């Protein structure tokens, strides 16, 4: 399906309410720009992936002050299902791209109203995560989930033209794929998933070709990029790697258990082990011994099904089973519980801040 005519119309309407922010001069001359119109302008979204095969993914909206909590906003705005197994959300300009993994579908909505304006419904095979650069969206696809010892993989990065909402190229990596980030026009793709694999593939977005692979420890879990440094978290080691040379700057051994959920916020590194959250500085040389916070969990999946650090808060999502709603807990940076509420859907796996 194509979206240009619909998106163009929405963009024109949005322009009536939005001050231009296309340059620094605009920002200086018009510091008090109006907020975009819509019900979801001052808050964040919780993506509930649903139970596999049941087409029951949902999105919950929560206001920034945590006073408003509205469930199933995609269904309410469009009178249709989001799809099967909601995986992730990517923002670009006025749009949110919502990946439904098992449906091989990406819904494109206005991020302030959640009204559907287009879909990407071909050329995808188990899509996972996405990033936008140069008017193109790069989406990791895990294909048919081959065994980690297989010699031939069908995993690939789909390059999507955002003018037509069509896949215009696929970049095969012959590796497992998961998270994806953009930095200075380069697309960095994690060659590992579900605790198996290692390395980061580097794609030049101007030519859409692989130009390098950065080696990491085995069992790579997640990665972040900050100030020219790639932080690669495996289950037991946090590596700091020079983004240009690919050389390891330092390694921090993590001994308390299997780490996951790497986040960097305001000059601090966060990761989780079970239901514990740990924090250290960018220049620290050893892992912290004590967690910032810890909570009890009866989840089959070990807690922390979703995790994010944003501003002054730590956000956690619990998925007790895949037949009942999850639980959201929000803590301050001292680890004190600020609020707790029902996620509004099954399997909450991520937080997406609409700012």
Could you walk me through the main structural features you see in this protein, from its secondary elements to its overall organization?
There is one protein chain. With 355 residues, this protein is mainly beta. It has helices spanning 4-17, 24-29, 73-78, and strands at 43-48, 58-63, 69-70, 86-92, 95-100, 105-110, 116-120, 127-133, 136-141, 156-161, 166-172, 180-183, 186-193, 196-204, 209-214, 220-226, 229-234, 237-242, 248-253, 260-265, 268-273, 276-281, 293-294, 306-310, 313-318, 325-332, 337-346, 348-353. The protein has three helices and 28 strands. The strands form seven sheets. Strands 3-2-1-28 form a four-stranded antiparallel β-sheet. The protein has a four-stranded antiparallel β-sheet with strand order 4-5-6-7. The protein is globular, with a radius of gyration of 20 Å.
Summarize the model shown:
The chain is mainly beta and 355 residues long. 7% of the residues lie in helices and 48% in strands.
Descriptors for this entry?
mainly beta; disordered N terminus; 355 residues; 28 strands
Helix and strand layout, with pairings?
Blueprint: H1 4-17, H2 24-29, E1 43-48, E2 58-63, E3 69-70, H3 73-78, E4 86-92, E5 95-100, E6 105-110, E7 116-120, E8 127-133, E9 136-141, E10 156-161, E11 166-172, E12 180-183, E13 186-193, E14 196-204, E15 209-214, E16 220-226, E17 229-234, E18 237-242, E19 248-253, E20 260-265, E21 268-273, E22 276-281, E23 293-294, E24 306-310, E25 313-318, E26 325-332, E27 337-346, E28 348-353
Antiparallel strand pairs: 1-2, 1-28, 2-3, 4-5, 5-6, 6-7, 8-9, 9-10, 10-11, 12-13, 13-14, 14-15, 16-17, 17-18, 18-19, 20-21, 21-22, 22-23, 24-25, 25-26, 26-27
